[in-house]
C-alpha cells in the first residue's frame, strides 16, 4: 500500500476546470481563459503560448505539437498531428554530397518544418471559441514586459551557451554575456513582436509570411528547408492508437510518435497481477524494466512516418503478439531483447473544462533549445527533430528522405472508461517519455495512487548521460531503498542512483477525472503547478 504523506504537494482540486502544466504563469493564463468561458482547446493554446515564453528551452513556436482531445459532446478522443516534415533537400544522397556521415545533433541540417503554430489554429478551428489574437495576449505581455526567470531556465541557458555557436541565440538569451539570474526579469522583445504579428496575421505568418521568409533565408546555406516546404505544411486530424488495460482504454498518440511503446508495454504487463508486488520493490521494478526494454526494442525497429513507410501498428498492439514477446522474459534476471516481428527538453500539459472536454498536449523543440538556432529578429528557436532520422539504413521506416516526418519522442495519453475520461497525462523527457508513461499510469491504475503522488513517486530512466556510461545504464531515483538497488544488481540490472526528483526523469503533469471533480498533479522535478477552480 502507498505510504501516506509521501507527496511533497497536495493533489489540486477543481469542479469547473483545471490546468496542469510546467509554469505557474502558463497555468494562470489557461485558468483565466477557462473562467472567461473558453474551452479546453482555447485554454491549451493560451497555456502553450505562455510556455513558449517562460520555458524557451523546452518548447516554442519553432517546434512541433501533438495532442489528444476528448470531446464531451461526442464522447470521442481525437488526435491532432501537428508535426512538420523534412525539407525537400533532405536525403541520404545530399548528406553524402556534403561529406557528412550522419546528421549532427544541432544546427541547420536538423531543422524540420515547425508545426506548432498551424496546430494551434487547427485546434481552435475545431474545438475553440476564442480568437487566436485574444489567446496570445498573456504571452505577448510576458515576452514584452519580461517575467522573473526560474533557476531551471537560468541554468539551462548557462549550460547551453557553450554548445551553440549561433550569434542570434546568444544575443537573445545572454544579452549581457551571461544568463539571466534567478528572479531577474527576462524580456524577449523580438518574440513579443512575432507574437503580435501572429495575432494580427494568423498562422500564415510562419508558413508564407515574414517569419517563413526569415526561416528559409536562415536555412538557405546549410539547412534542408525551402520556402516551398514551409508553404506546403499542413497538420492532420487522425485517430489515436489504444489498448485496454485494467478496465480502461488507454489512448496514445500514434506513429510517428512513440505512443505505441507505452501501449505494448501495458499489453505485456496486463496478464500480471502487478499490484501484488510491493510498489518499487525489486520484483516490481524488475518486471517494469524488462517489459519496457521489450517495448523499446520494437519501437526502435518499427516506428517511422506511416505515410512513407510500413509501420505495423495493429500487429504491435495485438494481445497475442504481446503474449509471444513476453515468453522471452525471465523473472530471475535481466535480459537483452531484439525486436520482434508483429506480422510474422519538451513540455506536456493537460487542460479540462467545465463541459467535460479534456486535452492532453505535448509540444517541444526536442533537445534543450532545439537546433540552437534562433530565427533572426523573430526570437523563435527552431527545433532539431530532424536529428532523429536514420542515416545508416535506407530501408528503416525512419530513414532520412524529403518531405518525411521524423520519429518523435513526443507523446500524450488519455484514459477513458465507458467512453468517459478518467485521466489525461503528458510528460517531457525525450527518449524516456514512454517508460515514464508506463510508470505513472501503472501507479494510478494498478496501485490506486492519486495523480499527484503517482507523478512524484520515484522513476527509472534507461540511457547514458555521461561519456563513459553504457547505453543500458538504469538511473533510479534515490528515494528507493538501498536494498532495492542491490537486489536489482543481483538480477543483472546496471542500476545507479539518480538524485531525488531527477530532472531528466521528466516533468509530468496530469488530470484525473472523478465524479464531477478534477484532480490535478504537477511535477516537483520542474517549475510546474496544477490549478483548479
Brief summary of the model shown:
The protein has about 525 residues and is an alpha+beta fold. Helices cover about 35% and strands about 15% of the residues.
Secondary-structure topology with pairs:
Layout: E1 12-14, E2 18-21, H1 24-35, H2 40-54, E3 64-71, E4 76-82, H3 92-97, H4 116-127, H5 132-135, H6 137-145, E5 147-148, H7 151-160, H8 167-173, E6 185-186, H9 189-201, H10 204-207, H11 210-219, H12 227-231, E7 236-238, E8 241-245, E9 248-252, H13 259-269, H14 282-302, H15 313-316, H16 319-326, E10 347-352, E11 358-364, E12 412-417, E13 420-427, H17 433-445, H18 451-456, E14 460-462, E15 474-477, H19 482-490, E16 495-498, E17 508-513, E18 518-522, E19 529-532
Parallel strand pairs: 15-16
Antiparallel strand pairs: 1-18, 2-10, 2-19, 3-4, 3-11, 4-7, 5-6, 8-9, 9-12, 10-11, 12-13, 13-17, 14-15, 17-18
Provide an overview of this structure.
The chain has 533 residues and is α+β, with helices and mostly antiparallel strands. Helix content is 34%, strand content 17%. The chain contains 19 helices and 19 strands. The protein has helices at residues 24-35, 40-54, 92-97, 116-127, 132-135, 137-145, 151-160, 167-173, 189-201, 204-207, 210-219, 227-231, 259-269, 282-302, 313-316, 319-326, 433-445, 451-456, 482-490, and strands at residues 12-14, 18-21, 64-71, 76-82, 147-148, 185-186, 236-238, 241-245, 248-252, 347-352, 358-364, 412-417, 420-427, 460-462, 474-477, 495-498, 508-513, 518-522, 529-532. A seven-stranded antiparallel β-sheet has the order 1-18-17-13-12-9-8. The chain has a seven-stranded antiparallel β-sheet with strand order 7-4-3-11-10-2-19, covered by helices on one side. Strand 12 and strand 13 (420-427) form a beta hairpin. The radius of gyration is 22 Å and the shape is globular. The model has no long low-confidence stretch (mean pLDDT 94).
Amino acid at each position: 500500500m502507498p505510504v501516506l504523506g509521501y507527496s511533497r504537494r497536495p493533489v489540486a482540486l477543481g469542479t469547473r476546470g483545471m490546468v496542469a502544466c510546467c509554469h505557474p504563469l502558463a497555468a494562470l493564463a489557461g485558468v483565466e481563459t477557462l473562467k472567461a468561458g473558453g474551452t479546453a482547446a482555447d485554454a491549451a493554446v493560451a497555456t502553450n503560448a505562455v510556455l513558449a515564453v517562460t520555458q524557451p528551452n523546452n518548447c516554442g513556436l519553432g517546434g512541433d505539437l501533438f495532442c489528444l482531445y476528448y470531446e464531451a459532446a461526442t464522447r470521442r478522443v481525437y488526435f491532432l498531428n501537428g508535426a512538420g516534415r523534412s525539407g525537400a533537400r533532405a536525403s541520404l544522397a545530399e548528406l553524402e554530397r556534403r561529406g557528412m556521415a550522419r546528421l549532427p545533433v544541432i544546427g541547420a541540417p536538423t531543422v524540420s518544418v515547425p508545426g506548432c503554430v498551424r496546430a494551434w489554429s487547427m485546434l481552435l478551428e475545431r474545438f475553440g471559441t476564442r480568437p487566436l489574437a485574444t489567446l496570445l495576449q498573456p504571452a505577448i505581455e510576458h515576452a514584452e514586459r519580461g517575467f522573473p526567470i526560474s533557476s531551471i531556465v537560468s541554468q539551462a541557458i548557462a549550460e547551453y551557451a557553450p554548445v551553440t555557436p549561433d550569434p542570434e541565440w546568444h544575443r537573445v538569451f545572454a544579452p549581457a554575456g551571461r544568463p539571466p539570474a534567478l528572479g531577474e526579469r527576462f524580456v524577449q522583445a523580438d518574440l513579443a513582436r512575432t507574437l503580435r504579428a501572429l495575432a494580427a496575421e494568423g498562422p500564415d505568418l510562419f508558413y508564407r509570411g515574414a517569419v517563413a521568409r526569415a526561416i528559409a533565408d536562415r536555412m538557405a546555406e546549410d539547412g534542408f528547408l525551402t520556402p516551398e516546404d514551409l508553404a506546403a505544411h499542413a497538420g492532420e486530424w487522425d485517430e489515436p492508437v489504444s489498448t485496454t488495460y485494467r478496465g480502461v482504454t488507454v489512448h496514445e498518440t500514434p506513429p510517428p510518435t512513440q505512443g505505441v511503446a507505452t501501449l505494448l508495454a501495458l499489453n505485456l504487463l496486463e496478464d500480471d497481477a502487478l499490484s501484488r508486488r510491493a510498489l518499487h520493490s525489486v520484483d516490481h521494478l524488475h518486471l517494469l524494466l524488462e517489459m519496457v526494454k521489450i517495448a523499446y526494442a520494437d519501437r526502435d525497429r518499427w516506428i517511422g512516418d506511416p505515410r512513407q513507410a510500413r509501420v505495423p501498428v495493429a500487429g504491435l498492439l495485438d494481445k497475442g503478439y504481446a503474449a509471444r514477446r513476453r515468453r522471452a522474459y525471465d523473472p530471475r534476471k535481466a535480459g537483452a531483447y531484439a525486436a520482434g516481428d508483429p506480422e510474422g527538453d519538451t513540455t506536456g500539459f493537460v487542460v479540462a473544462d467545465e463541459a467535460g472536454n479534456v486535452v492532453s498536449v505535448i509540444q517541444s523543440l526536442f533537445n534543450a533549445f532545439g537546433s540552437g538556432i534562433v530565427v533572426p529578429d523573430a526570437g523563435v528557436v527552431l527545433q532539431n527533430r530532424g536529428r532523429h532520422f536514420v542515416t545508416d539504413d535506407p530501408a528503416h521506416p525512419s530513414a532520412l528522405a524529403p518531405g518525411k516526418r521524423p520519429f518523435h519522442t513526443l507523446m500524450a495519453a488519455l484514459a477513458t472508461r465507458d467512453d468517459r475520461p478518467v485521466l489525461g497525462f503528458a510528460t517531457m523527457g525525450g527518449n524516456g517519455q514512454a517508460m515514464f508513461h508506463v510508470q505513472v499510469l501503472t501507479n494510478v491504475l494498478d496501485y490506486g495512487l492519486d495523480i499527484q503522488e503517482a507523478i512524484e513517486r520515484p522513476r527509472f530512466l534507461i540511457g547514458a548521460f555521461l561519456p563513459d556510461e553504457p547505453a543500458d545504464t538504469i538511473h533510479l531515483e534515490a528515494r528507493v531503498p538501498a536494498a532495492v538497488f542491490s537486489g536489482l544488481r543481483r538480477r543483472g540490472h546496471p542500476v545507479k542512483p539518480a538524485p531525488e526528483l531527477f530532472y531528466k526523469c521528466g516533468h509530468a503533469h496530469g488530470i484525473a477525472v472523478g465524479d464531477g471533480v478534477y484532480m490535478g498533479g504537477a511535477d516537483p522535478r520542474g517549475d510546474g503547478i496544477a490549478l483548479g477552480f
